Amino acid sequence: MSLLKVDNLVTRLRNGARIVDDISFDIAAGETFALLGESGCGKSMTALSLMRLLPDGVVNASGAVQMDGVALFDLRERDMREMRGGRMAMIFQEPGLSLNPVMTVGRQIAEVLALHHDLKGAAAQQRSIELLDQVGIPDAPRRVREYPFRLSGGMKQRVMIAMALAGSPRLLIADEPTTALDVTIQAQVLQLLRDTQSRTGMAMLLITHDLGVVAENAHRVAVMYAGQIVEQASREQLFARPLHPYTQKLFAALPGAARAGQLLSAISGSVPPLGSIKQGCRFAARCDQAWARCHEQNPEWTAVAEGQGVRCHLYGEEGGGGKGKGGRGKGRSGAAGFPFSLISFPFTLAGRRPASALPDPQRHPAACGRQR
Ligand code: SF4
Question: Which of 97, 226, 231, 300 has the smallest set of CB atoms within 10 Å of its CB?
Fold first, then answer.
């Protein structure tokens, strides 16, 4: 049974442009579901829509989102605040902007503990220290009394993770949770999240551009491009046989021992501004396999195998693909013969999203149920 169920989520700008366009997925308790894609594909906006923390200029999110059987879009804001930080929490990309600069990190964690566990005073202080210790902050009894400006970027990120875990959420939305961390701490933090999951059954929506993080942590994966999910599959299916030309290009851009001495492959062009393409496949301008139809018709979703689907004309009826069929897509794309297993590739696809392209966490400080 799904803990989170998202059906036909659409998020619009004031001018009507759909920046998250008809997205559906579900996550079971204890499961990690990854949203993968380049910066600017709508991954963070999807997460903010689920948390009902839309930035200025984004008017509404429609569709149906059920968390533990509760329809989130029908809740009053007061009830939604209870939901945030309690049943669902989010780790933002930019901890420096999300932490309150005039409160010690201990007080910020204690606020979550008071709100969601009714834990106060010395007990809250002790629990805050434990949480900081769990996320790998050295000398936690001292650090708990520090202000955020005394901490490095990686430490702030870990404080954010501690705050998110403080509410014992049933669903954790982790938006690039380890981007600011060095590899050793990254491994520790991911292990901590996995341990928390197996201990508590917490589900995780993992937003990342890092195929290494996906390979090690995700059970299922959705690949996003320009506001749409273009491929969804189990981790094993995706890494064994990526279908969508965009997914294939992401894999082809990875370095590896087998390609030593070769030029790294890059995806030409860039992601179009969200909501800017009204007709045809959104990836057409960057796709080597595009033909006339791709520029004229939006590709529909096609189920290709049990648990794996794709939004591409190569696999639709005209492309000859679809479930159980040997398609034009398979022949043209060469996906069936994708030559290597990438499960253990510990590489990063892209650099961090430029600050200018980020939603402003200052405008949605309540992700951990904390009020400024
Ligand atoms: Fe490429 Fe056409 Fe498929 Fe889009 S629909 S990914 S342009 S082949």
Answer: 300
